[in-house]
């Protein structure tokens, strides 16, 4: 189906292009059909579609923050600003657009996710005060992780480095 013949076919192709472009922007592996759709798009068409996808994503993320506020998962902080609260019962979806961008480069509307705190053990009284949160960018001290050969830590070190955007990641065997 190279040239859509009906309005319905045009809508289907347009939606398929939008889906392919969204998948590409989020770093997903594309199918052969999606790859061909993107290759066939003109630069102008791709630019227009990217703008539309970005606009839709922005509206969705604003609505998501409103939803979190209505569930009281966005709360004021003592020193000013707001924090996002996550629990196993009310998890927070981290925006996919932020996963491949260093926090220093996040747009202002996404900085609230730097103030996200997850309470993983809310049902256990002795552990309910423990939480997981981000440290402000560039405030953590550098650390080294060493292990013995064949101890099974290569995968852990690899994942740890990937989580840090591969800065200064060297695995020595």
TrEMBL record:
It comes from the Eukaryota. This is Uncharacterized protein.
């Amino acid at each position: 189906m190279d040239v859509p013949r009906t309005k319905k076919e045009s809508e289907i192709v347009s939606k398929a292009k939008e889906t392919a472009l969204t998948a590409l922007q989020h770093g997903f592996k594309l199918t052969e059909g999606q790859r061909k759709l993107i290759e066939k798009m003109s630069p102008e068409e791709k630019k227009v579609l990217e703008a539309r996808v970005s606009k839709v994503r922005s509206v969705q993320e604003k609505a998501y923050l409103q939803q979190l506020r209505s569930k009281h998962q966005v709360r004021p902080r003592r020193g000013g600003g707001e924090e996002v609260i996550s629990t196993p019962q009310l998890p927070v979806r981290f925006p996919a657009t932020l996963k491949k961008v260093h926090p220093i480069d996040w747009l202002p509307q996404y900085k609230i996710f730097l103030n996200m705190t997850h309470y993983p053990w809310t049902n256990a009284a002795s552990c309910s005060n423990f939480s997981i949160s981000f440290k402000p960018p560039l405030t953590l001290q550098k650390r080294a992780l060493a292990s013995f050969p064949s101890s099974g830590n290569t995968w852990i070190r690899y994942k740890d480095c990937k989580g840090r955007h591969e800065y200064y990641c060297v695995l020595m065997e």
